Amino acid sequence: MRRSNILIIALIAVANLAVWAVLNRPLHVPSWSGDIQGVSFSPYRENENPLTGKYPSDAEIGSDLALLSSRVGAVRTYSTTEGVQDVPYLAAKYGLQVTAGAWLDKHLDKNELELDTLVDMVQRYPNIDRVLVGNESILRGDVTVPEMIQYLRRARSQIEVPVSTAEPWHVWLTHPELVKEVDFIAVHILPYWEGVPVKEAVNYVAYRYHQLKEAYPHKPIVLTEVGWPSKGRQIGLAKASLANQALFMREFLNFADREGVQYFLMEAFDQPWKEKIEGTAGAYWGLYDADRKPKYAMTGPVIVNAYWPYLAAAATLLALPVILFFLARWTELRFEGRLFFAALAQSAGSLLVWTILAGAERYMSTGDVVMWGVMVLGQIGLLSLLVTESGQMSIMLWTRRWRREFKPAVAAPGRALPKVSLHLPVHNEPPHMVIETIESLARLDYPNLEILVIDNNTKDPAVWQPVEAYCATLGGRVRFVHVENLKGFKAGALNLALRMTDPEAEIVGVIDSDYVVRPDWLAATVPHFDNAKVGVVQAPQDHRDGHLSFFKEMINWEYAGFFHLGMVLRNESNAIIQHGTMTLVRRSLLEKLGGWAEWCICEDAELGLRVIREGYETVYIKESFGQGLSPDSFAGYRVQRFRWAYGAMQIMKRHIGLFSPRDRQLSLGQKFHFLAGWLPWIGDGLQLLFTVAALVWTALLAFWPAWFEFPLGVFVVPALVMVGFKLLQTLWLYKARVGGTLLQRMGAAIAGMALTHAVAKAVLIGLFTKKRPFLRTPKCEDSSAVIRGIVVAWEEFVLFTLLWLGAAVILAGGYNNDEAITWACMLVAQSLPYGAGVFASLMSAMPSFALRRVPAIAAATAKAPAAALAAAKAPATQGARAAS
Fold it and tell me: Which of 102, 286, 742, 753 is deepest in the core (most CB within 10 A)?
């Protein structure tokens, strides 16, 4: 291994370790070395739940009490039934005092049982020193204040120990009549639920405590619930975390000791079952976790995750194979490119470990595990896309030299050039445009050539007959065939042309009906077939009308990205995408492979994959030898990309076996590039599903905030990062390898994003169907440009509007915290592709928004025979040209 690679691996490993160390650095908070007065005690374990009748055994309760007795003087219970009725008896064995509680709600019969059992327990167990009749029963609205007063009077008449009911501070301040009926005020002060930041939380407890003392100076006060959760949603400025829990507990215990406050910490053990009724935070209030392990020490620095060195090592080992593979394969990459990729790959590895850790630290049911698994798979897909894109970006930016770079060729002197048969499929195209293409083909400076024009399924004779007439003026070198009811679309026409090809032709070329080619196209490309291993020679698609409007300029720069970046990169591994124009194929190979695939709407890309599968080489020459016409509208542009993405799904499903690790027909690099090319489109499909899910979740947050929480940042933040990375990637790569002004680069980025929704639909439909669905372009030609633009992109407009509305609802809904802001930012980021779609549609609907005006027909057309050209223009058909 090169020394520079060893240095890169060492730097990345050290940097990764440093980041984990910083994020898990010990927290220095005040220590507490004394005993704890009391804790709220619910003895249910991870697989137990009073709501489903799964109660702890006496042995389990006894074990819990024995554990607590070493640091706690008393426990507080909430019920006299449901498996905890023996707590006083078991607590007495370990010298623990008990504040016993009776649960009161709307079930009157059960309330009677609770109260009767409480009276009986007090009489039987002398270690019960207080009782609580009800827990937040008034707060929940289960019991009215007059009803509670009656319950209290009954209890006080039968019980000799102090009696109260437990309620939050504001209930006591609001109902002084309730205070008169109790022997002490049992108050819950939980700053977390009130959105108080942890640094102010103990001061807030002190403030509410003294407020009660001033209001009722002659009543003893016991804080029967006071604490902080170690995990849960952010409420206001209150963040649930292990560090914040440790900070609050230590500060509060010191405060209580100074002030002489009586208290029960909330609570002894984490209670996973409470998550279903209180949200995530409800499960994480314990000093101990559900496995009865202390979460942190009360003295010394707080270490949030003592296992972080192992996690850092796991993240390093996870990323290392990917980094090693990349460094070994791309030896021509400069140091900064290798370092850039290694850093991003390591970041992805650490994010994945963080994701898995976030799940491992949660209490999850079987259903939760399944859902978490699906989310982790989605995260793996997102991170895989990030790593793939970063690798390709590194290669494009920092490669010293290309290993497979092909230039225009020159035939050996005296060598007889092979005969080429050029196939021009035509369907319902404007005749003047087709004639322009044929005329440019006729001017090719290649001596051994035939041109076959196959007009298939054009119904109107006024459209195809002028082309036929023009071809007749060119002699036997050009043959025109009109066919009715031909099946197989473009592939069917090409297969017909293949059957009609001159037997002497060795090379078959395909050209779209809107292209004007350079005279030297064949002379500069055919000589590459002297290498018997070459099966395809491909030149870029290019367009000559990008100057007509800002919309066309946007999409032409977007096209340029693929042909200047993607195809160059794929060519390094002999894995280019063959496209159906400006392409040359060895005829014998084409016939061996059975011709063009009529089952696939991307017959060109499908053929290219089969050529590579046969072991042939493909040659990509990054020089424009011909220029066509780009789609005239956003609808056409979108339909074209839908077809490409849908066809890619057809190809992937048909040939998925080629990408098996056991299959050797494709090289590892070829498998990578085809899968890497499909992955972003599949990612767009997943993004659409994620967008819908995000909108549904936002509605649930808005209408049922008590039941639904913001998704964990571990899933939201990477999605935000990916949006920013893709935009940065486009702007950076275009500046380095494609060119263009900043406005043109931004236009290309917008045009690419504008297709996200169309690609997503194509992927999702393509995965579950075999035939391309019928797509209708909305007709609104008589409307204003703005209306036309919105109608064409109405789906994008709706999704964009809903996402912005969702963000506004979240920010206006009182969620003044980081989670809400992050979620709102994610919704806005998700809206960008849909906003780009609306923008592109509006630009295409505004012909006045042009940079400069030029005639619609290139000057080359003027060279066509005047009579033929006049005949071609006479019908003036307005039939829409099918996007290439």
Answer: 102
Asked if residue 362 lies in contact with residue 272, where contact means CB atoms within 8 angstroms, the answer is no
> Tokens in use for 138?
């008034």
What is the SS3 assignment for 472? helix
Question: In this predicted model, what pLDDT tens digit does every residue of 401-444 receive, in sequence order?
Answer: 898 999 999 877 778 899 999 999 999 999 999 999 999 999 99
Q: What's the rounded Cα separation, in Å, for the pair 393 and 79?
A: 62
Task: Please give the structure tokens belonging to residue 387.
Answer: 């790593």
Give CA–CA dist 464/482, Å, rounded. Answer: 8
Topology (CATH) of 419-633+858-873: Spore Coat Polysaccharide Biosynthesis Protein SpsA; Chain A (3.90.550)
Give the C-alpha separation, 561 to 746, whole Å.
12
CA distance 798 to 503: 56
Q: Residue 98 and residue 89: Cα distance in Å, rounded? A: 10
Q: Which residue has the tokens 């009586």?
A: 262
- Percent of the chain with pLDDT strictly greater than 90: 73
Q: What is the DSSP letter of 190?
A: -
| Residue 267, preceding peptide bond in cis (omega within 30° of 0) | yes
Residue with the two structure tokens 């739940």: 49
pLDDT at 368: 74
Torsion angle of alpha carbons 628, 632, 637, 643, nearest 10°? -70
Q: Which phi and psi (to 5°) does residue 136 adopt?
A: 55, 30
The alpha helices in 423-566, defined as continuous H runs, are 431-442, 461-472, 489-500, 521-525, 550-561
Please list the residues that pair with 478 across neighbouring strands: 451
The structure tokens 């092909």 sit at 406
Q: Is 767 exposed, middle or buried (0-12, 13-18, 19+ CB in 10 A)?
A: middle
The pLDDT tens digits for 185-238 are: 999 999 999 999 999 999 999 999 999 999 999 999 999 999 999 999 888 889
The pTM for the full model equals 0.83
541-591 per-position pLDDT tens digit:
999 988 888 999 999 999 999 999 999 999 999 999 999 899 999 999 999
Looking at domain 25-283, its CATH superfamily turns out to be Glycosidases (3.20.20.80)
Q: Give whole-number Cα distances, 10 to 13, 18, 211, 359, in Å.
A: 5, 12, 59, 29
- Listed in order, the ranges of the chain carrying CATH 3.20.20.80 are 25-283
- pLDDT, position 128: 97
pLDDT of residue 847: 64
Strand partners, 221: 185
Q: Is the dihedral of CA 740, 742, 743, 745 positive or negative?
A: positive
